[in-house]
Protein backbone atom coordinates (compact mmCIF):
# COMPACT_ATOMS: atom_id res chain seq x y z
CA UNK A 1 0.00 0.00 0.00
CA UNK A 2 1.57 3.31 -1.10
CA UNK A 3 1.35 6.14 1.38
CA UNK A 4 3.61 8.76 -0.23
CA UNK A 5 2.53 10.51 -3.38
CA UNK A 6 4.71 12.17 -5.95
CA UNK A 7 3.52 15.53 -7.30
CA UNK A 8 2.83 15.32 -11.02
CA UNK A 9 2.29 17.71 -13.85
CA UNK A 10 -1.10 19.36 -14.11
CA UNK A 11 -3.28 20.48 -16.96
CA UNK A 12 -5.77 23.31 -17.08
CA UNK A 13 -8.54 20.83 -17.77
CA UNK A 14 -7.75 19.00 -14.50
CA UNK A 15 -7.90 22.23 -12.56
CA UNK A 16 -11.15 23.27 -14.18
CA UNK A 17 -12.89 20.04 -13.36
CA UNK A 18 -11.58 20.04 -9.78
CA UNK A 19 -12.78 23.58 -9.23
CA UNK A 20 -16.14 22.69 -10.66
CA UNK A 21 -16.46 19.70 -8.32
CA UNK A 22 -15.49 21.77 -5.30
CA UNK A 23 -17.87 24.53 -6.32
CA UNK A 24 -20.75 22.08 -6.79
CA UNK A 25 -19.91 20.28 -3.55
CA UNK A 26 -19.93 23.51 -1.56
CA UNK A 27 -23.22 24.44 -3.18
CA UNK A 28 -24.66 21.12 -2.01
CA UNK A 29 -23.40 21.96 1.45
CA UNK A 30 -25.23 25.25 1.63
CA UNK A 31 -28.30 23.93 -0.16
CA UNK A 32 -31.49 23.50 1.87
CA UNK A 33 -31.39 19.73 1.69
CA UNK A 34 -30.30 17.23 4.30
CA UNK A 35 -26.77 16.06 5.14
CA UNK A 36 -27.54 12.77 3.36
CA UNK A 37 -28.42 14.59 0.16
CA UNK A 38 -25.24 16.65 0.30
CA UNK A 39 -22.89 13.71 0.92
CA UNK A 40 -24.58 11.47 -1.66
CA UNK A 41 -24.33 14.40 -4.09
CA UNK A 42 -20.57 14.70 -3.51
CA UNK A 43 -20.07 10.97 -4.14
CA UNK A 44 -22.08 11.27 -7.34
CA UNK A 45 -19.97 14.22 -8.52
CA UNK A 46 -16.76 12.24 -7.85
CA UNK A 47 -17.94 9.39 -10.01
CA UNK A 48 -19.58 11.29 -12.83
CA UNK A 49 -17.03 14.05 -13.25
CA UNK A 50 -13.72 12.47 -12.45
CA UNK A 51 -14.08 8.70 -12.54
CA UNK A 52 -13.66 8.12 -8.80
CA UNK A 53 -16.18 5.31 -8.78
CA UNK A 54 -18.06 3.46 -6.06
CA UNK A 55 -17.25 6.22 -3.64
CA UNK A 56 -18.15 5.43 -0.07
CA UNK A 57 -18.11 7.24 3.24
CA UNK A 58 -17.34 4.84 6.04
CA UNK A 59 -18.04 6.21 9.53
CA UNK A 60 -17.10 5.03 12.99
CA UNK A 61 -19.95 3.21 14.71
CA UNK A 62 -21.08 4.77 17.98
CA UNK A 63 -19.27 3.36 21.03
CA UNK A 64 -17.57 0.63 18.95
CA UNK A 65 -14.19 0.03 17.39
CA UNK A 66 -15.74 -0.59 14.01
CA UNK A 67 -16.59 1.34 10.87
CA UNK A 68 -19.52 0.91 8.50
CA UNK A 69 -20.34 2.28 5.09
CA UNK A 70 -23.00 4.94 5.64
CA UNK A 71 -23.06 6.69 2.24
CA UNK A 72 -22.12 5.31 -1.15
CA UNK A 73 -22.55 5.84 -4.85
CA UNK A 74 -22.60 2.89 -7.24
CA UNK A 75 -22.74 0.19 -4.58
CA UNK A 76 -25.65 -2.22 -4.42
CA UNK A 77 -27.45 -2.58 -1.06
CA UNK A 78 -25.79 -5.98 -0.37
CA UNK A 79 -22.36 -4.51 -1.19
CA UNK A 80 -23.03 -1.67 1.16
CA UNK A 81 -24.26 -4.01 3.85
CA UNK A 82 -20.96 -5.92 3.72
CA UNK A 83 -18.98 -2.75 4.36
CA UNK A 84 -18.04 -3.23 8.03
CA UNK A 85 -14.41 -2.99 9.20
CA UNK A 86 -12.68 -3.19 12.51
CA UNK A 87 -10.45 -0.11 13.02
CA UNK A 88 -7.02 -1.14 11.73
CA UNK A 89 -8.48 -3.83 9.47
CA UNK A 90 -8.01 -3.58 5.70
CA UNK A 91 -7.21 -0.35 3.88
CA UNK A 92 -10.20 1.52 5.27
CA UNK A 93 -9.53 0.40 8.84
CA UNK A 94 -5.88 1.41 8.57
CA UNK A 95 -6.63 4.86 7.18
CA UNK A 96 -8.93 5.38 10.14
CA UNK A 97 -6.27 4.18 12.56
CA UNK A 98 -3.26 6.02 11.05
CA UNK A 99 -5.09 9.12 9.68
CA UNK A 100 -2.90 8.72 6.59
CA UNK A 101 -4.07 8.64 2.99
CA UNK A 102 -3.83 5.33 1.14
CA UNK A 103 -3.18 4.73 -2.55
CA UNK A 104 -3.59 1.12 -3.65
CA UNK A 105 -2.30 1.14 -7.19
CA UNK A 106 -3.63 -2.32 -7.98
CA UNK A 107 -6.16 -3.97 -5.70
CA UNK A 108 -5.21 -7.42 -7.06
CA UNK A 109 -1.65 -7.04 -5.76
CA UNK A 110 -2.31 -5.49 -2.36
CA UNK A 111 -2.64 -8.04 0.46
CA UNK A 112 -4.12 -5.47 2.86
CA UNK A 113 -6.99 -4.76 0.46
CA UNK A 114 -9.87 -6.98 1.63
CA UNK A 115 -12.21 -7.09 -1.40
CA UNK A 116 -15.04 -7.22 1.13
CA UNK A 117 -17.77 -4.88 -0.03
CA UNK A 118 -17.40 -5.20 -3.84
CA UNK A 119 -16.41 -8.54 -5.32
CA UNK A 120 -13.57 -8.45 -7.85
CA UNK A 121 -15.72 -10.07 -10.54
CA UNK A 122 -18.07 -7.11 -10.64
CA UNK A 123 -15.21 -4.65 -11.30
CA UNK A 124 -13.66 -3.97 -14.74
CA UNK A 125 -11.01 -6.42 -15.95
CA UNK A 126 -8.42 -3.63 -16.17
CA UNK A 127 -6.19 -2.74 -13.28
CA UNK A 128 -8.30 -1.09 -10.57
CA UNK A 129 -6.85 1.21 -7.94
CA UNK A 130 -8.38 2.19 -4.56
CA UNK A 131 -7.82 5.56 -2.87
CA UNK A 132 -8.83 6.44 0.66
CA UNK A 133 -8.46 9.54 2.86
CA UNK A 134 -9.42 10.14 6.49
CA UNK A 135 -12.40 12.37 7.29
CA UNK A 136 -11.05 14.59 10.04
CA UNK A 137 -12.89 17.11 12.13
CA UNK A 138 -10.77 19.18 14.53
CA UNK A 139 -8.10 16.51 14.03
CA UNK A 140 -10.47 13.79 15.20
CA UNK A 141 -11.09 11.03 12.64
CA UNK A 142 -14.80 10.60 11.96
CA UNK A 143 -14.37 8.05 9.19
CA UNK A 144 -12.89 7.39 5.76
CA UNK A 145 -13.70 8.55 2.25
CA UNK A 146 -12.69 5.98 -0.36
CA UNK A 147 -13.22 5.25 -4.07
CA UNK A 148 -12.07 3.00 -6.93
CA UNK A 149 -10.50 4.28 -10.10
CA UNK A 150 -8.95 2.73 -13.14
CA UNK A 151 -5.22 2.87 -12.82
CA UNK A 152 -4.83 3.53 -16.54
CA UNK A 153 -6.62 6.86 -16.47
CA UNK A 154 -4.50 9.88 -17.35
CA UNK A 155 -5.09 11.84 -14.14
CA UNK A 156 -2.27 11.59 -11.63
CA UNK A 157 -3.10 9.87 -8.34
CA UNK A 158 -1.80 12.86 -6.41
CA UNK A 159 -4.51 15.10 -7.86
CA UNK A 160 -7.22 12.61 -6.95
CA UNK A 161 -5.90 12.38 -3.43
CA UNK A 162 -5.76 16.16 -3.06
CA UNK A 163 -9.30 16.46 -4.29
CA UNK A 164 -10.50 13.65 -2.01
CA UNK A 165 -8.93 15.45 0.94
CA UNK A 166 -10.79 18.65 0.14
CA UNK A 167 -14.04 16.73 -0.25
CA UNK A 168 -13.40 14.83 3.00
CA UNK A 169 -13.06 18.20 4.77
CA UNK A 170 -16.40 19.31 3.33
CA UNK A 171 -17.98 16.03 4.40
CA UNK A 172 -16.58 16.49 7.92
CA UNK A 173 -18.20 19.92 8.04
CA UNK A 174 -21.52 18.56 6.82
CA UNK A 175 -21.47 15.74 9.36
CA UNK A 176 -20.57 17.95 12.29
CA UNK A 177 -23.16 20.56 11.32
CA UNK A 178 -25.87 17.97 11.00
CA UNK A 179 -24.86 16.42 14.33
CA UNK A 180 -25.03 19.86 15.89
CA UNK A 181 -28.45 20.44 14.39
CA UNK A 182 -29.64 17.03 15.54
CA UNK A 183 -28.40 17.71 19.04
CA UNK A 184 -29.96 21.16 19.06
CA UNK A 185 -33.24 19.82 17.71
CA UNK A 186 -33.29 17.09 20.34
CA UNK A 187 -32.53 19.71 22.97
CA UNK A 188 -35.32 21.96 21.74
CA UNK A 189 -37.73 19.04 21.59
CA UNK A 190 -36.83 18.19 25.19
CA UNK A 191 -37.24 21.80 26.22
CA UNK A 192 -40.57 21.98 24.43
CA UNK A 193 -41.76 18.85 26.19
CA UNK A 194 -40.63 20.21 29.56
CA UNK A 195 -42.37 23.54 28.96
CA UNK A 196 -45.55 21.82 27.87
CA UNK A 197 -45.46 19.65 30.93
CA UNK A 198 -44.85 22.64 33.16
CA UNK A 199 -47.73 24.44 31.49
CA UNK A 200 -50.02 21.46 31.89
CA UNK A 201 -49.10 21.20 35.54
CA UNK A 202 -49.64 24.91 35.98
CA UNK A 203 -53.07 24.90 34.43
CA UNK A 204 -54.00 21.50 35.80
CA UNK A 205 -55.34 22.87 39.04
CA UNK A 206 -56.93 25.86 37.37
CA UNK A 207 -58.64 24.21 34.41
CA UNK A 208 -57.47 26.70 31.83
CA UNK A 209 -58.06 29.80 33.96
CA UNK A 210 -55.03 31.91 33.15
CA UNK A 211 -53.50 34.74 35.07
CA UNK A 212 -50.86 35.38 37.65
CA UNK A 213 -52.17 38.59 39.19
CA UNK A 214 -52.83 38.48 42.94
CA UNK A 215 -56.47 39.50 42.38
CA UNK A 216 -57.10 36.58 40.02
CA UNK A 217 -55.16 34.13 42.17
CA UNK A 218 -57.21 35.16 45.19
CA UNK A 219 -60.48 34.52 43.34
CA UNK A 220 -59.13 31.18 42.14
CA UNK A 221 -58.18 30.10 45.65
CA UNK A 222 -61.66 30.99 46.88
CA UNK A 223 -63.30 29.01 44.07
CA UNK A 224 -61.18 25.92 44.73
CA UNK A 225 -61.82 26.26 48.44
CA UNK A 226 -65.61 26.29 48.11
CA UNK A 227 -65.98 23.78 45.26
CA UNK A 228 -65.89 20.56 47.36
CA UNK A 229 -68.77 21.82 49.51
CA UNK A 230 -72.28 22.10 48.13
CA UNK A 231 -72.49 25.74 49.17
CA UNK A 232 -74.25 28.24 46.92
CA UNK A 233 -71.78 30.56 45.21
CA UNK A 234 -72.40 34.10 44.01
CA UNK A 235 -69.98 35.30 41.34
CA UNK A 236 -69.82 39.03 40.82
CA UNK A 237 -67.83 40.99 38.28
CA UNK A 238 -68.09 42.95 35.07
CA UNK A 239 -69.06 41.34 31.84
CA UNK A 240 -66.32 39.17 30.36
CA UNK A 241 -64.36 38.70 33.58
CA UNK A 242 -64.81 34.93 33.47
CA UNK A 243 -67.86 34.31 35.66
CA UNK A 244 -69.11 31.40 33.60
CA UNK A 245 -65.62 30.00 33.39
CA UNK A 246 -65.33 30.08 37.16
CA UNK A 247 -68.75 28.47 37.55
CA UNK A 248 -67.56 25.58 35.38
CA UNK A 249 -64.38 25.34 37.41
CA UNK A 250 -66.38 25.06 40.64
CA UNK A 251 -68.53 22.35 39.05
CA UNK A 252 -65.74 20.20 37.67
CA UNK A 253 -63.75 20.36 40.86
CA UNK A 254 -66.78 19.45 42.99
CA UNK A 255 -68.24 16.08 43.92
CA UNK A 256 -71.01 16.76 41.41
CA UNK A 257 -68.55 16.76 38.51
CA UNK A 258 -70.13 13.64 37.01
CA UNK A 259 -73.54 15.26 37.09
CA UNK A 260 -74.85 17.86 34.62
CA UNK A 261 -73.75 21.50 34.44
CA UNK A 262 -76.71 23.53 33.22
CA UNK A 263 -76.42 27.26 32.50
CA UNK A 264 -79.14 29.80 31.84
CA UNK A 265 -78.87 33.52 31.26
CA UNK A 266 -81.78 35.14 33.07
CA UNK A 267 -81.39 38.37 31.09
CA UNK A 268 -81.37 36.73 27.69
CA UNK A 269 -84.73 34.96 27.81
CA UNK A 270 -88.02 36.86 27.55
CA UNK A 271 -89.78 36.95 30.90
CA UNK A 272 -92.83 35.13 29.57
CA UNK A 273 -90.72 32.12 28.62
CA UNK A 274 -88.26 32.16 31.48
CA UNK A 275 -90.54 30.54 34.04
CA UNK A 276 -91.18 27.47 31.95
CA UNK A 277 -87.49 27.35 30.95
CA UNK A 278 -86.53 27.29 34.62
CA UNK A 279 -89.27 25.14 36.13
CA UNK A 280 -90.65 23.24 33.14
CA UNK A 281 -94.35 22.80 32.52
CA UNK A 282 -97.06 20.21 32.49
CA UNK A 283 -98.93 19.30 29.34
CA UNK A 284 -101.69 21.84 28.70
CA UNK A 285 -100.36 24.32 31.26
CA UNK A 286 -100.76 27.10 28.70
CA UNK A 287 -101.49 27.51 25.05
CA UNK A 288 -98.78 25.74 23.13
CA UNK A 289 -97.76 23.44 26.01
CA UNK A 290 -98.66 20.36 24.02
CA UNK A 291 -96.26 18.11 25.84
CA UNK A 292 -94.83 17.96 29.32
CA UNK A 293 -91.39 19.59 29.58
CA UNK A 294 -88.70 19.47 32.21
CA UNK A 295 -87.19 22.80 33.20
CA UNK A 296 -83.51 23.52 33.48
CA UNK A 297 -83.53 23.19 37.29
CA UNK A 298 -84.89 19.67 37.00
CA UNK A 299 -82.40 18.88 34.24
CA UNK A 300 -79.58 20.00 36.53
CA UNK A 301 -80.59 17.43 39.15
CA UNK A 302 -77.51 15.97 40.89
CA UNK A 303 -75.39 18.59 39.20
CA UNK A 304 -74.82 22.32 39.08
CA UNK A 305 -77.18 25.05 37.91
CA UNK A 306 -75.52 28.28 36.76
CA UNK A 307 -77.91 31.22 36.87
CA UNK A 308 -76.20 34.00 34.95
CA UNK A 309 -77.39 37.61 35.30
CA UNK A 310 -79.49 36.72 38.32
CA UNK A 311 -79.90 40.46 39.00
CA UNK A 312 -82.24 40.60 36.00
CA UNK A 313 -84.67 38.01 37.34
CA UNK A 314 -88.22 39.35 37.69
CA UNK A 315 -89.57 39.62 41.25
CA UNK A 316 -92.21 36.88 40.93
CA UNK A 317 -89.60 34.45 39.59
CA UNK A 318 -87.30 35.45 42.45
CA UNK A 319 -89.99 34.17 44.87
CA UNK A 320 -90.25 30.89 42.97
CA UNK A 321 -86.50 30.47 42.98
CA UNK A 322 -86.42 31.13 46.69
CA UNK A 323 -88.94 28.31 47.09
CA UNK A 324 -86.56 25.97 45.27
CA UNK A 325 -83.67 26.97 47.50
CA UNK A 326 -85.69 26.53 50.68
CA UNK A 327 -87.62 23.39 49.85
CA UNK A 328 -85.12 21.79 47.51
CA UNK A 329 -88.05 21.05 45.23
CA UNK A 330 -89.67 22.55 42.14
CA UNK A 331 -93.20 22.84 40.87
CA UNK A 332 -93.62 22.76 37.10
CA UNK A 333 -95.83 25.45 35.55
CA UNK A 334 -99.36 24.10 35.66
CA UNK A 335 -98.35 21.36 38.08
CA UNK A 336 -99.37 20.78 41.65
CA UNK A 337 -96.70 18.36 42.76
CA UNK A 338 -93.40 19.28 44.36
CA UNK A 339 -90.59 17.49 42.53
CA UNK A 340 -87.48 17.11 44.71
CA UNK A 341 -84.22 18.32 43.20
CA UNK A 342 -80.66 18.11 44.40
CA UNK A 343 -78.90 21.00 42.72
CA UNK A 344 -75.96 23.15 43.56
CA UNK A 345 -76.66 26.76 42.63
CA UNK A 346 -74.04 29.13 41.30
CA UNK A 347 -75.42 32.55 40.49
CA UNK A 348 -73.65 35.41 38.75
CA UNK A 349 -74.29 39.05 38.15
CA UNK A 350 -72.53 42.14 36.89
CA UNK A 351 -74.99 44.27 38.93
CA UNK A 352 -74.60 45.46 42.48
CA UNK A 353 -77.20 43.19 44.11
CA UNK A 354 -77.01 44.98 47.46
CA UNK A 355 -78.05 48.17 45.69
CA UNK A 356 -80.83 46.34 43.84
CA UNK A 357 -82.09 45.13 47.24
CA UNK A 358 -82.04 48.68 48.63
CA UNK A 359 -83.98 49.85 45.60
CA UNK A 360 -86.57 47.11 46.06
CA UNK A 361 -85.67 45.32 42.86
CA UNK A 362 -84.21 42.23 44.43
CA UNK A 363 -85.64 40.20 47.32
CA UNK A 364 -83.50 40.49 50.39
CA UNK A 365 -84.19 36.90 51.47
CA UNK A 366 -83.10 35.58 48.08
CA UNK A 367 -80.04 37.79 48.21
CA UNK A 368 -78.96 36.19 51.51
CA UNK A 369 -79.71 32.71 50.17
CA UNK A 370 -77.46 33.35 47.18
CA UNK A 371 -74.77 35.37 48.87
CA UNK A 372 -73.54 32.40 50.93
CA UNK A 373 -70.09 32.43 49.36
CA UNK A 374 -69.47 35.49 47.20
CA UNK A 375 -66.48 35.56 44.85
CA UNK A 376 -65.61 38.78 43.11
CA UNK A 377 -63.89 38.51 39.75
CA UNK A 378 -61.66 41.52 39.19
CA UNK A 379 -61.82 43.41 35.90
CA UNK A 380 -58.83 43.08 33.59
CA UNK A 381 -57.60 46.59 34.42
CA UNK A 382 -57.03 45.40 38.01
CA UNK A 383 -55.14 42.27 36.99
CA UNK A 384 -51.65 43.64 36.63
CA UNK A 385 -49.59 41.65 34.11
CA UNK A 386 -52.41 39.31 33.13
CA UNK A 387 -53.09 41.03 29.82
CA UNK A 388 -49.81 39.89 28.24
CA UNK A 389 -50.27 36.44 29.66
CA UNK A 390 -53.79 36.11 28.26
CA UNK A 391 -52.89 37.82 24.98
CA UNK A 392 -50.12 35.26 24.30
CA UNK A 393 -52.52 32.45 25.08
CA UNK A 394 -55.22 33.86 22.80
CA UNK A 395 -52.63 34.42 20.06
CA UNK A 396 -51.70 30.76 20.16
CA UNK A 397 -55.36 29.75 20.03
CA UNK A 398 -56.16 32.14 17.16
CA UNK A 399 -53.12 31.00 15.18
CA UNK A 400 -54.34 27.46 15.57
CA UNK A 401 -57.91 28.35 14.67
CA UNK A 402 -57.02 30.38 11.57
CA UNK A 403 -54.02 28.28 10.59
CA UNK A 404 -51.64 31.21 10.83
CA UNK A 405 -48.29 31.63 12.52
CA UNK A 406 -48.30 35.23 13.65
CA UNK A 407 -46.25 36.76 16.45
CA UNK A 408 -46.59 40.04 18.34
CA UNK A 409 -44.27 42.71 17.01
CA UNK A 410 -42.32 45.13 19.23
CA UNK A 411 -44.44 47.25 21.56
CA UNK A 412 -47.69 45.37 20.91
CA UNK A 413 -47.99 43.72 24.32
CA UNK A 414 -47.19 47.02 26.05
CA UNK A 415 -49.90 48.69 24.01
CA UNK A 416 -52.43 46.00 24.94
CA UNK A 417 -51.37 46.26 28.57
CA UNK A 418 -52.06 49.98 28.58
CA UNK A 419 -55.62 49.67 27.24
CA UNK A 420 -58.59 50.05 29.58
CA UNK A 421 -60.48 46.87 28.50
CA UNK A 422 -64.08 47.79 29.22
CA UNK A 423 -65.11 44.42 27.78
CA UNK A 424 -62.49 42.53 29.77
CA UNK A 425 -61.18 39.11 28.74
CA UNK A 426 -63.76 38.44 26.07
CA UNK A 427 -62.85 41.74 24.41
CA UNK A 428 -59.14 40.99 24.63
CA UNK A 429 -59.71 37.59 23.04
CA UNK A 430 -61.68 39.13 20.17
CA UNK A 431 -59.06 41.77 19.55
CA UNK A 432 -56.24 39.25 19.39
CA UNK A 433 -58.29 37.17 16.95
CA UNK A 434 -58.85 40.21 14.77
CA UNK A 435 -55.18 41.15 14.91
CA UNK A 436 -54.22 37.65 13.76
CA UNK A 437 -56.62 37.98 10.85
CA UNK A 438 -55.55 41.43 9.69
CA UNK A 439 -51.78 40.99 10.09
CA UNK A 440 -50.34 41.38 6.61
CA UNK A 441 -47.26 39.34 7.34
CA UNK A 442 -46.14 37.07 10.13
CA UNK A 443 -45.87 39.92 12.57
CA UNK A 444 -48.77 41.69 14.25
CA UNK A 445 -47.60 45.28 14.23
CA UNK A 446 -48.29 48.05 16.64
CA UNK A 447 -50.19 49.76 13.79
CA UNK A 448 -52.52 46.76 13.42
CA UNK A 449 -53.27 46.94 17.13
CA UNK A 450 -53.68 50.72 17.22
CA UNK A 451 -56.16 50.47 14.40
CA UNK A 452 -58.23 47.84 16.17
CA UNK A 453 -58.10 49.60 19.52
CA UNK A 454 -59.19 52.86 17.95
CA UNK A 455 -62.10 51.03 16.47
CA UNK A 456 -62.89 49.51 19.87
CA UNK A 457 -62.72 52.88 21.66
CA UNK A 458 -65.15 54.22 19.17
CA UNK A 459 -67.60 51.43 19.89
CA UNK A 460 -66.99 51.99 23.63
CA UNK A 461 -67.77 55.68 23.34
CA UNK A 462 -71.11 54.99 21.73
CA UNK A 463 -71.94 52.20 24.15
CA UNK A 464 -71.05 54.36 27.12
CA UNK A 465 -73.03 57.28 25.76
CA UNK A 466 -75.93 54.84 25.36
CA UNK A 467 -76.77 57.19 22.58
CA UNK A 468 -80.01 56.90 20.76
CA UNK A 469 -78.92 59.33 18.09
CA UNK A 470 -77.93 57.69 14.86
CA UNK A 471 -74.37 56.58 14.72
CA UNK A 472 -72.46 56.07 11.53
CA UNK A 473 -71.92 52.36 10.88
CA UNK A 474 -68.73 50.98 12.33
CA UNK A 475 -66.78 48.42 10.41
CA UNK A 476 -64.08 46.15 11.64
CA UNK A 477 -60.59 46.74 10.23
CA UNK A 478 -59.98 45.20 6.83
CA UNK A 479 -58.71 41.68 6.40
CA UNK A 480 -55.73 40.96 4.17
CA UNK A 481 -57.52 38.18 2.32
CA UNK A 482 -58.16 38.20 -1.39
CA UNK A 483 -61.86 38.01 -0.73
CA UNK A 484 -61.77 41.30 1.10
CA UNK A 485 -64.33 43.74 -0.22
CA UNK A 486 -63.37 47.40 0.00
CA UNK A 487 -65.91 49.16 2.16
CA UNK A 488 -66.79 52.71 2.98
CA UNK A 489 -66.52 53.69 6.62
CA UNK A 490 -68.87 56.12 8.25
CA UNK A 491 -67.85 59.68 9.02
CA UNK A 492 -68.03 59.07 12.74
CA UNK A 493 -65.12 56.65 12.46
CA UNK A 494 -62.54 59.24 11.49
CA UNK A 495 -60.88 60.62 14.59
CA UNK A 496 -58.55 63.53 14.99
CA UNK A 497 -56.04 61.36 16.87
CA UNK A 498 -55.59 59.24 13.77
CA UNK A 499 -53.60 62.02 12.13
CA UNK A 500 -50.26 60.89 13.47
CA UNK A 501 -50.85 57.28 12.44
CA UNK A 502 -51.71 58.29 8.89
CA UNK A 503 -48.73 60.60 8.61
CA UNK A 504 -46.38 57.96 10.01
CA UNK A 505 -47.65 55.43 7.51
CA UNK A 506 -47.10 57.89 4.68
CA UNK A 507 -43.60 58.67 5.89
CA UNK A 508 -42.69 55.00 6.14
CA UNK A 509 -43.84 54.31 2.61
CA UNK A 510 -42.25 57.39 1.09
CA UNK A 511 -45.62 59.00 0.45
CA UNK A 512 -47.11 56.01 -1.38
CA UNK A 513 -50.77 56.10 -0.34
CA UNK A 514 -51.62 52.62 -1.54
CA UNK A 515 -48.84 51.05 0.49
CA UNK A 516 -49.53 53.33 3.45
CA UNK A 517 -53.16 52.18 3.37
CA UNK A 518 -51.99 48.56 3.36
CA UNK A 519 -49.78 49.04 6.39
CA UNK A 520 -52.80 50.32 8.29
CA UNK A 521 -55.02 47.49 7.07
CA UNK A 522 -57.18 49.88 5.03
CA UNK A 523 -58.19 50.01 1.41
CA UNK A 524 -56.60 52.92 -0.55
CA UNK A 525 -60.05 54.44 -0.75
CA UNK A 526 -60.54 54.36 3.01
CA UNK A 527 -57.09 55.87 3.46
CA UNK A 528 -57.76 58.76 1.07
CA UNK A 529 -61.08 59.31 2.69
CA UNK A 530 -59.45 59.75 6.08
CA UNK A 531 -56.80 62.08 4.71
CA UNK A 532 -59.54 64.12 3.19
CA UNK A 533 -61.62 64.27 6.35
CA UNK A 534 -58.63 65.29 8.41
CA UNK A 535 -57.53 67.92 5.90
CA UNK A 536 -54.31 66.06 5.11
CA UNK A 537 -54.78 65.34 1.46
CA UNK A 538 -52.32 67.98 0.33
CA UNK A 539 -49.51 66.32 2.35
N1 LIG B 1 -58.80 33.67 33.50
C1 LIG B 1 -59.12 33.32 32.25
N2 LIG B 1 -58.23 32.63 31.52
C2 LIG B 1 -58.53 32.31 30.25
N3 LIG B 1 -59.66 32.64 29.63
C3 LIG B 1 -60.58 33.29 30.33
C4 LIG B 1 -60.36 33.66 31.67
N4 LIG B 1 -61.45 34.31 32.11
C5 LIG B 1 -62.30 34.36 31.08
N5 LIG B 1 -61.80 33.75 30.01
C6 LIG B 1 -62.43 33.67 28.70
O1 LIG B 1 -63.03 34.94 28.45
C7 LIG B 1 -64.31 34.80 27.86
C8 LIG B 1 -65.36 35.42 28.76
O2 LIG B 1 -65.50 34.65 29.94
P1 LIG B 1 -66.94 34.32 30.58
O3 LIG B 1 -67.98 34.05 29.54
O4 LIG B 1 -66.73 33.29 31.61
O5 LIG B 1 -67.20 35.76 31.24
P2 LIG B 1 -68.50 36.24 32.03
O6 LIG B 1 -68.01 37.04 33.17
O7 LIG B 1 -69.40 35.07 32.32
O8 LIG B 1 -69.14 37.19 30.98
P3 LIG B 1 -70.70 37.67 30.90
O9 LIG B 1 -71.01 38.20 32.24
O10 LIG B 1 -70.63 38.72 29.84
O11 LIG B 1 -71.45 36.46 30.51
C9 LIG B 1 -64.49 33.32 27.64
O12 LIG B 1 -64.07 33.01 26.34
C10 LIG B 1 -63.59 32.68 28.67
O13 LIG B 1 -63.19 31.42 28.25
Automatic annotation (TrEMBL):
This is Transcriptional regulator, NifA subfamily, Fis Family. Keywords: ATP-binding, DNA-binding, Nucleotide-binding, Transcription, Transcription regulation. It comes from Halothiobacillus neapolitanus (strain ATCC 23641 / DSM 15147 / CIP 104769 / NCIMB 8539 / c2) (Thiobacillus neapolitanus). PANTHER family: TRANSCRIPTIONAL REGULATORY PROTEIN, TRANSCRIPTIONAL REGULATORY PROTEIN FLGR. Residues 209-437 form the Sigma-54 factor interaction domain. It comes from the Bacteria. One of its GO terms (molecular function) is ATP binding. Gene3D superfamilies: 1.10.8.60, 3.30.450.40, Homeodomain-like, P-loop containing nucleotide triphosphate hydrolases. Pfam families: AAA_lid_14, GAF, HTH_8, Sigma54_activat. GO terms for biological process: regulation of DNA-templated transcription. Residues 465-489 are annotated as: Disordered.
